[in-house]
Design a protein that fits this description.
The chain is of the alpha/beta class. It contains seven helices and seven strands, in the order ββααβαβαβαβααβ.
């Protein structure tokens, strides 16, 4: 699904699903995000950008920054599992910011930036919160992963997940933790 909506939480847009590559892809992604922002000015929009391919990631971030002029959009980085991944995500955002400055395009690069925690590995990793405004916990996916690996003992799997969340999320409690159970 490309964009999912929940009246209480906002709108999540999976930029990787919408992005077709190149400058034309950036323009189409920008137009899609702008239209969503203009149609739903009272709603928060989270733009999910996968950090698996640097050039593609930077182009998607540029589209997000450009669309952020028209609404409340936050940048959510996916596929971040280590501090090195987190640093690379921040550097991609900085390069995108500088590129848009050089191009003289209208944009808002001062938007909230966060990390999606959607795998047990990401949950357990020691990702530094420095430079990020929030973490988004995909409880629905984590539960599916834990229950799927539980060999029929769903109650035990959910208890393990709950314990992991409580232990590991205390480390990032200084940051706003958004839970979007119905969005992802």
């Amino acid at each position: 699904m490309e964009a999912e909506e929940n009246k209480n939480d906002g709108i999540l847009v999976d930029c990787s699903a919408l992005f077709e590559g190149g400058e034309e892809g950036e323009q189409r992604l920008y137009e899609t995000l702008r239209a969503i922002a203009e149609e739903s000015p009272e709603r928060e929009i989270s733009a999910l950008v996968s950090c698996d391919q640097k050039e593609k990631t930077e182009t998607q971030i540029k589209a997000v920054f450009r669309a952020a002029v028209y609404g409340e959009i936050s940048l959510l980085f996916g596929d971040v599992f280590t501090n090195e991944d987190a640093e690379e995500a921040k550097e991609c955002a900085q390069r995108s910011f500088r590129s848009l400055l050089e191009e003289g395009r209208e944009f808002n690069g001062f938007i909230p930036k966060g990390i999606l925690i959607d795998t047990p590995f990401a949950l357990l990793s020691k990702i530094s919160e420095q430079g990020f405004d929030f973490f988004c916990l995909d409880e629905k996916r984590l539960i599916r992963l834990f229950v799927g690996a539980s060999n029929g003992n769903e109650v035990a799997a959910l208890q393990i997940l709950n314990d992991l969340c409580e232990k590991n999320l205390q480390k990032i409690s200084k940051k706003v933790l958004t839970k979007r159970k119905n969005m992802i």
